[in-house]
Structure formats: structure tokens, C-alpha cells
């Protein structure tokens, strides 16, 4: 699923390709992907141009020069593709913004979990959906206040978008590894030092992922992500990725809160 780093990459792509071009039409292959009815969407946006964006967690908001706000959620496998109208429509581009410039922006929806529609206000949308501050913007005080109220293991607490927006499964594992906190440590029992380490690790992991445009294979070797099953990073030895990056022990794979979880049994212990 696209998480904060991927959506931030999409945001940069959107800005680099699709700003200041009048929308001539919106082609929708499957209207179930719309959270606003098609007639309203086209009546509102045709003739407008995209002029600014904002990302909060996994949510991308695009603002038009006419004062309207479009919300894009990338579901499980969503993406964007900008292309000239003379070329074939990209595969799975089920929603296409046709610009008068002769170029199009395709919203790629392979599994149809993606959604797009108008919102009246970003802040109202976030409040209604109970979405916490973005992972790159949340303060230590905000994070601490939310976590200390929870009696669940810290991993599912961090996965909850009402705790912090934009961090999913692999990111939480990485954050907890970098912070040296066991994923089953109870949230309300974390010390001020551990909370500070988690807050710092969230920013560090997200900034690293954005720097590398979410290309996991380019992440530093000190990252736990290389132990995950789907990582294709090259290693000198076939079993190298199974070890803790610090060489302390084999990485443990288990389930916490129903999610596949990776951690180091030496670096991350429950006191």
C-alpha cells in the first residue's frame, strides 16, 4: 500500500507535471471510484487548473485556481501517470484528467481500492476521518499525549492513523527498530526516553524513505527493511539479510496486532 513516502513522491510528480493547465474533461471508467458524483465533479473542475497541493499522511489534496479541493487516496496500489493525449491510455488509468495543453494525467487504479473526489475543507475531512497530524509534522507532545492513553502494544497503536498519519506496517517496524523498542511493548508503559526515541525515529525513517523516493533497495544497510521477504537488495551473502543490521542476532518474524512483524530480539527487548 502506498504510504507517506510514496504519496510524497506522487505529490512532487503531480506538481512537476500537472500544474497550471486548464482541465478540458475528466474521463472516468468506473464511477464507483468517485466519492463525488460524476456530474458535480466535472461541473466543478472543468475549466479549472491545479495550482497547489498538500499531503497529510497517505492523503493527497490538490487545490485549483478556483478555490476547490480534490482529494486523492491511492488505496493499495494507486499511482499517477502523465502522458501525451496522442499516446494510448496507460493500463488501469481508470480516471483521466484531460488538459487543454494536449497532455493527460491518469489516476492508476489496478485493484479499484483507490478513491477520488471533492472535499469542502482539508481540516474538516481530517477531523471527520479522525486522521492525526502528519508523520513529518507531529510534535513529541502530540505523539506522547495520544500514546500514553493507550494500553495496547505500541505497534498497532502507531499503525492507527488517529495516532500519527501516514506510517504503515514496514515503517512502524523500522521506526521501532531504530528506536530500540519492542513491538509488543505496551504503549502506556513507555518511558519519556522511549517516546522521544520513537518520535525521532519516525522523522528519520520518513525523511530517509522520501530521499530515496521509497526505493527500498537504496536504503542504508543499517535499516531493518532489508530483512523483509520482498526486499530485493543485493547482498554479498545470501543469508546476510536475515541478520540484524548490527549483527546481533537473526531477525524474528512474528505477528503483532494481526500484522506481519519483524524485530531484533537483542536490540528490542521488553524490560
Give a structural overview.
- The chain has helices at 4-18, 38-45, 122-128, 140-147, 154-159, 169-179, 192-211; strands at 23-28, 50-56, 59-64, 69-73, 79-84, 93-99, 103-108, 115-119, 252-256, 259-263.
- The mean pLDDT is 94.
- It has 2 domains: 4-128, MutM-like, N-terminal (N-terminal domain of MutM-like DNA repair proteins, Alpha-Beta Barrel); 140-263, Helicase, Ruva Protein, domain 3.
- The two termini are 33 Å apart.
- The strands form 3 sheets. The protein has a 4-stranded antiparallel β-sheet, covered by helices on one side.
- It contains 7 helices and 10 strands.
- The chain is an alpha+beta fold and 271 residues long.
Q: What number of structural domains do the residues give?
A: 2
Strand-pairing-aware structural class:
alpha+beta
Mean pLDDT: 94
Label the CATH architecture of the largest domain. Alpha-Beta Barrel
Please compute the radius of gyration using only Cα atoms. Answer: 20 Å
Instruction: Please identify the top-level CATH class of the largest domain.
Output: Alpha Beta
Quick take:
This protein has 271 residues and is an alpha+beta fold. The chain is 28% helix and 21% strand. It has seven helices and ten strands.
What features would you highlight for this structure?
Helicase, Ruva Protein, domain 3, DNA-binding, 28% helix, DNA repair, elongated, alpha+beta, four-stranded antiparallel beta sheet, glycosidase, N-terminal domain of MutM-like DNA repair proteins, 2 domains, 271 residues
